[in-house]
């Protein structure tokens, strides 16, 4: 459903004149009304199934009205899933509490494929009895007829009994009344060209109401009396002609000895006609919009009364008619192929919208890219041009251009160009709540594992239209309507939006912002502050460091002072040494001079005396 509401703006962004235009386009609904048969238009708001209802057993899938567990099935449609301790482990699915084994379902046509036994009477045996199937207390039939069109009736299923062997008498007995329903016999002569004689019993004209449990009783003709030829066992089984081809050879040759496949048609037996059933909306089985109801007859011979009804999705729809909104458009696409256009001109295209076949969720989301224009334009419903779209807001911005009008003034044509207006179309996936939508996993739109569903209400023409949209979970961004469409946001790469004054660490779906070791506080609001203990330890460390530094400095100063003193003393000694050396040299010279002078004086004095 797409609902357009609220704003109508001109190209300049001004609000348009006049009252706000509200346009309701029932466009994205998975269930429009109208089809053949008795059409369903009711919705039971008390219907929701438990969220934990199983949908499969082994490799067999099924849908409501069938189910396993309390509240998961319609009365009469309960199933039993049995596990087997094999290697590898296997599971088997049974109708009811485990009497008839299921092979498969055809939910579109209301058919269940079940196993029925191959009954074998040995060559030396004269009689043999065996139950073929027991459907008492089940809304199933071996043969049913439905008026699927207004002009003719169609057979939903019709089975046969096949009896093979020589000299056989086969009697089909209704266990409920212990009466013979039908019989057939075979004869074999020595010159017979067929290795296997057989006879069949058709259920086509049976009254489906009268026979629900069947037993096959086998006997042999008198061989001697009839001069018959008997060299093989007798085999009997139930089968559907459409499902029976080469299997008969396997059965007759003995390679298939256990079971064969029979088709059963299921129907709603709470009321005999659609008309009566629709008067009881709380129990009426055809829950989905776009579903039809058809009366059921026992067979062609009993079309004067009905025994119940069946539901089918309307023409051009498929899915399950037995759950709300279970029938969806056949053009429905749950995922996006790789070759889909993601842009048209300047407009980005996001799934569920698309332009190519198979690239949009259903035909309601179909857009047209007009590539003949420059640049290409994206068209919606051939009337609007798409400007942009938003998955988060659930909006489609479109504009329409009014026609150019030419008005005649005097004899001159004056052109008045129409004003382009922008409309904001609000859209929802469908007119159902998240609770309802999640019950049908085939059509539920929020497919990404990191997405969630939100109920939405949109006002349109004074009415509130309810539906839902999808969004990526917090910490993720992208397209919730696609598998793996929501990707993790790396908040640490955008500190302006995701504040962190500490250490930022990205996580899946979020991020952590922590203070460095030794500090505390809220780093998303302000810077971290050191812890008191850390401050004390830091003070001690600083004090010790300062003390050690001072000690080293003092020691260094003392050592340097001593070295300085030593160097100073050395210089003084060297100075004194040099001075003393000069004085000694001078003193020696003077001393030598005096001695010489004294010697000369002595000599002179001696000569004077002489």
From TrEMBL:
SMART domains: EGF, EGF_CA
Membrane topology: Single-pass membrane protein
MF terms (GO), sorted A to Z: calcium ion binding; kinase activity; polysaccharide binding
Signal peptide from the UniProt entry: 1-37
Compartments, record wording: Membrane
TM helices/strands, residue ranges: 536-560
Taxonomy, superkingdom: Eukaryota
Coiled-coil regions listed in the entry: none
Keywords: Disulfide bond, EGF-like domain, Kinase, Membrane, Receptor, Repeat, Signal, Transferase, Transmembrane, Transmembrane helix
Residue ranges of domain EGF-like in the record: 273-328, 433-487, 491-529
Primary location group: membrane
Boundaries of every EGF-like calcium-binding domain copy: 488-529
Zinc among keywords: no
Cellular component, GO, one term: membrane
InterPro entries reported in the protein's UniProt record: EGF, EGF-like_Ca-bd_dom, EGF-type_Asp/Asn_hydroxyl_site, EGF_Ca-bd_CS, Growth_fac_rcpt_cys_sf, NOTCH1_EGF-like, WAK_GUB
Descriptive protein name: OsWAK receptor-like protein kinase
Annotated organism of origin: Musa troglodytarum (fe'i banana)
């Amino acid at each position: 459903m797409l609902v357009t509401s609220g704003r109508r703006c001109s190209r300049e962004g001004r609000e348009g004149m006049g009252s706000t235009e509200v346009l309701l386009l029932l466009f994205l609904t998975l269930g429009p009304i109208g089809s053949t048969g008795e059409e369903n238009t009711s919705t039971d708001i008390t219907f929701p199934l438990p969220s934990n209802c199983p949908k499969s057993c082994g490799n067999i899938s099924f849908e409501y009205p069938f189910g396993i567990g309390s509240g998961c099935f319609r009365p009469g449609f309960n199933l039993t899933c049995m596990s087997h301790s094999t290697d590898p482990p296997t599971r088997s699915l049974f109708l009811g509490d485990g009497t008839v084994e299921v092979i498969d379902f055809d939910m579109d046509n209301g058919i269940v494929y079940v196993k029925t036994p191959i009954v074998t009477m040995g060559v030396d045996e004269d009689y043999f009895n065996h139950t073929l199937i027991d459907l008492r207390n089940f809304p199933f039939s071996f043969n049913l007829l439905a008026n699927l069109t207004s002009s003719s009736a169609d057979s939903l299923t019709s089975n046969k009994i096949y009896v093979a062997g020589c000299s056989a008498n086969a009697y089909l007995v209704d266990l409920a009344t212990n009466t013979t329903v039908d019989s057939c016999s075979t004869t074999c002569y020595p010159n017979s060209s067929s290795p296997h004689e057989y006879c069949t019993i058709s259920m086509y004209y049976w009254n489906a109401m009268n026979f629900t449990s069947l037993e096959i009783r086998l006997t042999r003709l008198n061989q001697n009396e009839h001069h018959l030829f008997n060299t093989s066992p007798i085999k009997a089984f139930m089968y559907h002609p459409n499902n029976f081809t080469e299997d008969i050879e396997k059965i007759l040759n003995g390679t298939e000895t256990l079971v064969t496949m029979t088709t059963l048609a299921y129907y709603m037996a709470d009321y005999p006609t659609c008309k009566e059933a629709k008067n009881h909306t709380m129990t009426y089985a055809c829950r989905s919009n776009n579903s039809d109801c058809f009366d059921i007859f026992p067979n062609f011979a009993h079309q004067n009364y009905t025994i119940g009804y069946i539901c089918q999705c309307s023409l051009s729809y498929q899915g399950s008619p037995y759950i709300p909104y279970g029938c969806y458009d056949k053009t429905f696409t749950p995922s996006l192929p790789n070759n889909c256009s993601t842009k048209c001109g300047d407009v980005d295209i996001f799934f569920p919208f698309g332009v190519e076949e198979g690239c949009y969720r259903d035909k309601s989301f179909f857009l047209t890219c007009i590539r003949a224009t420059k640049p290409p334009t994206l068209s919606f419903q051939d009337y609007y041009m798409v400007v942009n779209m938003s998955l988060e807001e659930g909006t489609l911005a479109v504009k329409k251009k009014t026609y150019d009008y030419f008005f005649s003034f005097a004899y001159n044509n004056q052109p008045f160009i129409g004003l382009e207006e922008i409309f904001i179309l609000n859209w929802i996936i469908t007119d159902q709540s998240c609770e309802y939508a999640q019950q049908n996993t085939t059509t539920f739109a929020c497919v990404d594992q990191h997405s969630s569903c939100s109920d939405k209400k949109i006002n349109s023409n004074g009415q509130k239209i309810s539906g839902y949209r999808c969004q990526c979970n917090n910490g993720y961004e992208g397209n919730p309507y696609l598998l793996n469409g929501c990707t993790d946001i790396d908040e640490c790469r955008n500190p302006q939006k995701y504040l962190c004054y500490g250490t930022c660490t990205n996580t899946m779906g979020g991020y952590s912002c922590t203070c460095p070791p030794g500090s505390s506080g809220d780093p998303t609001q302000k810077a971290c502050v050191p812890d008191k203990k850390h401050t004390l330890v830091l003070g001690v460390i600083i004090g010790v460091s300062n003390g050690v530094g001072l000690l080293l400095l003092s020691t260094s100063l003392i050592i340097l002072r001593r070295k300085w003193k030593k160097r100073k003393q050395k210089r003084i000694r060297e100075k004194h040494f040099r001075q003393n050396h000069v004085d000694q040299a001078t003193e020696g010279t003077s001393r030598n001079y005096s001695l010489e002078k004294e010697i000369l004086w002595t000599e002179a004095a001696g000569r004077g005396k002489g």
